[in-house]
Amino acid sequence: MFKVDENTFLRKYRDSDDVELSKELADEEVTRYTTIPHPYTLQHAKTFISENKNLVGLFAIVQEDKVVGAIEYDQQKGCFAHKAIIGYWLKKGLWNQGIMKNALATLIKIVEKQNETAEIKIKRLEAHVCNGNEFSGRTLMRNGFEKEGILVKDFCKNNVYYDTTIYGKILE
Ligand SMILES: CC(C)(COP(=O)(O)OP(=O)(O)OC[C@H]1O[C@@H](n2cnc3c(N)ncnc32)[C@H](O)[C@@H]1OP(=O)(O)O)[C@@H](O)C(=O)NCCC(=O)NCCS
C-alpha cells in the first residue's frame, strides 16, 4: 500500500473490487479518451481483474479501501525495455482536487525505487494523450513530463479519430 494523500492510497487490485470497478467505469466521461470499452459491464471488470491483478506496475487508487481510479506503468520489452507507458483514470466526482497529480508523483517514486534493484532500469516514462484531453496533459506536465510530438490519427474509438500528443519524462 502506498500513500498518495491523507485519504488516498495505491494498492493491488483484488477480485472483490469488481462491482466497484464496473460502477466507476460505467461513466463514459471517464473512459472516453481511454482504451476501456463502453458500455463497461461487471463481466469486463471480473475479466480485467483476474487477468491483470498480478501486473507489477498496475495499482488501484482507493479511498476507504474502495476503488476510485487506477494508475499503471507498463514496462516494455526488448529494445524498449527501458521504457514504461503510463496510464490512469479517476472517478469524475474526484477530478480537479490534485489526486492524479499526486498519484502520478507516487507512481514515479515507485518506479525509481524499483530501478534501484532492477536488472533493466526504466529510463523513460511515456504517455499518449488524445487531443482534447487537456486535464491529462496538465497532470503529466505537473510531474515534469514534456510534450515531445504529435501523432496524427493515432487513436480511434467509436469511429472517431484523434491525434495524440506524446509526453515523455526521462529518469536519471
Ligand atoms: C486526467 C485525469 C486523470 C486528471 O485527474 P485529476 O485528479 O482531476 O487531476 P488533478 O486534479 O491532479 O489536476 C491536474 C490538472 O488538470 C486540471 N484539471 C483537472 N480537472 C479539471 C477541471 N474539471 N477543470 C479545470 N481544470 C481541471 C487541474 O487544474 C490541474 O492543472 P493545473 O495543475 O495546471 O492547475 C482525470 O481527468 C480523468 O480520470 N480523466 C479520464 C481518464 C483519462 O482521460 N485518463 C488519461 C488518458 S491519457
Automatic annotation (TrEMBL):
Pfam families: Acetyltransf_3 (PF13302)
Gene3D superfamilies in the cross-refs: 3.40.630.30
UniProt keywords, alphabetically: Acyltransferase, Transferase
Keyword Zinc in annotation: no
Single Gene Ontology MF annotation: acyltransferase activity, transferring groups other than amino-acyl groups
Residue stretches making up the N-acetyltransferase domain: 8-167
Family assignment from sequence similarity: Belongs to the acetyltransferase family. RimJ subfamily.
Protein name per UniProt: N-acetyltransferase domain-containing protein
Organism per entry: Boothiomyces macroporosus
